[in-house]
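Example for tutorial group B:
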């Protein structure tokens, strides 16, 4: 695999081989990890894998990565643990952008009946 796949390559990995994307994510800097987290949540056919990998990223030291995790997790609003995580982030994350992203994700739940 390329060390820095394009966005299209990341999207294809998420759709066809999500475990390879997860493996790649574990070796990346925050800038690359952020987009990969968003894509994993959006496109992975293995929803359990995506959810399992995204929840810990919501506690990453980088606000950029936490925000990407929020966007990825917004695809799992029907899951209690995800909703609790997003609620916690919306109330207490030190980054305003992460709090806002989490609030927006939770607002989506109200609009579409829970994801």
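The residue assignment follows.
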């Amino acid at each position: 695999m390329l060390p820095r796949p394009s966005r299209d390559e990341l999207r294809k990995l998420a759709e066809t081989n999500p475990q390879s994307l997860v493996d790649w994510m574990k070796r990346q800097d925050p800038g690359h990890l952020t987009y990969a987290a968003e894509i994993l949540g959006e496109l992975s056919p293995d929803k359990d894998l995506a959810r399992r990998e995204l929840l810990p990223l919501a506690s990453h030291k980088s606000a950029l990565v936490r925000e990407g995790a929020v966007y990825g997790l917004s695809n799992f609003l029907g899951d209690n643990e995800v909703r609790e995580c997003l609620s916690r982030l919306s109330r207490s994350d030190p980054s305003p952008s992460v709090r806002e992203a989490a609030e927006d994700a939770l607002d989506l739940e109200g609009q579409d009946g829970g994801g």
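The radius of gyration is 13 Å. Compare this with the pattern of hydrophobic and polar residues in the output above.
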